[in-house]
Amino acid sequence: MITKNELDKLVEIYENAEFIKDDPVQFIHKFKTKKDTEIAGFVASLLAYGSRKQFIKKLDGWLDMAENEPLNFVQNFESEMVGDFNYRFGKPNDFISIFEILKELYNTSNGLEELFEYGYKQNKMFETVTDYFYSRANANVGQGFYHMIPNPRNGGAMKRMCMFLRWMVRKSIVDAGIWTFMKPSELYIPLDVHVGRISRQMGLLTRKANDFKAVIELTENLKKFCPEDPVKYDFAIFGYGVNGGKISVLKN
User: Fold this and answer.
1) Nearest-CA neighbor of 178 among 16, 23, 19, 36?
2) Dist. CA 198–CA 205, nearest whole Å
3) Which of 5, 37, 53, 212 has a Cα-to-Cα distance from 124 of 20 to 30 A?
4) Angstrom distance (rounded) from CA 31 to CA 58
5) Which residues touch 158 (CB under 8 Å, ≥6 apart)?
6) Count of domains in the chain?
7) More confident position, 89 or 248
């Protein structure tokens, strides 16, 4: 098993400003206000699957559509603003519904932070967020809507929602840390096929399925190294993978 010292050194190497430019986290760094930042982060997390080059290009296109004003865009959203905007599974009707729901949310409440905080206090944060969107989805949504906003009751890893929460809650050179209703110690590691494979190579994960049970197992093992900030090791796992599963970088 990889050691705490090795992981901590990898965090030092990879958690830096260079990480931002090629990662979807770049979109939260384009704004100074809380609501612009969280909306940009939320939309970025919804599209963060498939080819990184492609979804970053698509997110740049969305910001052009929004005239680089995410809050103004959702508060004044009209369906025709979407045009033919799509990304893989997500079709125009899926995006129309998402932006209509965000419009209602931001025009009737304090927005995503209030929604997530309410769910957190009910001890069912992911379920609360999903139920909010599902209950307001229009009749024309398809597979893309449910792919972008997956149902936690299905037992999936909820990778992109965990990633969005990392951006919002954890404060670092990479993450914004603009939400304070929960602590970094309560975050879950964003788990995908890549992170699962590398974590098993590291000896940090034994479960074979990349589901939420695996998320819990991996997060609990990382808490043994850093109880107050376990998801900081997201960067270490990333770095380990970039180096082909080798830690020779530590010996240079």
Assistant:
1) 36
2) 9
3) 37
4) 18
5) 126, 150, 152, 188, 212, 215
6) 1
7) 89
